[in-house]
Design brief:
5 helices; mainly alpha
Length: 171
């Protein structure tokens, strides 16, 4: 029964990885103009939430403010989308608690290779480019996602161990 659960959960993790890689690919396939417009729209939302008096600014001032934060928003988006990929890869590729180095390195390597291929893909999209800094940001996001996965796993594991010891192993 337990082996069936492990393989079923692993399949689910891998399906989530494939779906998320497809989402990342679709973001990268957008031409520069469309991608910039999405970043600008998100910048306007961020400004309306965090900048006091944003709604009182002229349209030109709002545009300039959104334009000023467009680049950091893009880089944060890179880190965030690859952080989620790192978390999903860690779940899909988890071997055992005895293989800590493997459990960190393998998802990191797979995610980083995907980041490189994603940047190469962007090179062929009109107006987009392949940037080494984006690969570094993506790789940072991956390692953060892997660490988050293992912190969550550790907390859940200690909770369930504590719960079992308090009930005498009876569930």
């Amino acid at each position: 029964m337990k082996n069936s659960f492990i393989s079923t959960s692993r399949v689910i993790w891998f399906i989530l990885v494939i779906i998320w890689m497809s989402v990342i690919f679709s973001f990268s396939a957008k031409e520069a103009e469309e991608s910039t417009e999405e970043s600008m729209n998100f910048g306007r939302i961020v400004c309306s939430i965090f900048v006091p008096g944003y709604d009182n600014l002229t349209d030109d001032e709002q545009y300039e403010l959104a334009k000023d934060i467009e680049y950091p928003i893009r880089k944060c988006a890179h880190a965030a989308e690859y952080m989620l990929l790192g978390l999903l890869l860690a779940g899909a590729l988890y071997v055992s608690s005895n293989s800590k180095m493997w459990n960190v390195l393998f998802p990191f390597c797979i995610g980083s290779v995907y980041s490189v291929t994603d940047e190469l893909h962007q090179f062929f999209v009109p107006g987009r480019s392949c940037r080494f800094t984006d690969i570094l940001i993506d790789s940072f996001g991956i390692i953060v996602g892997v660490v988050i996965y293992y912190k969550i796993t550790k907390v859940c594991s200690s909770y369930f161990m504590r719960s079992k010891s308090q009930t005498g192993g009876i569930e």
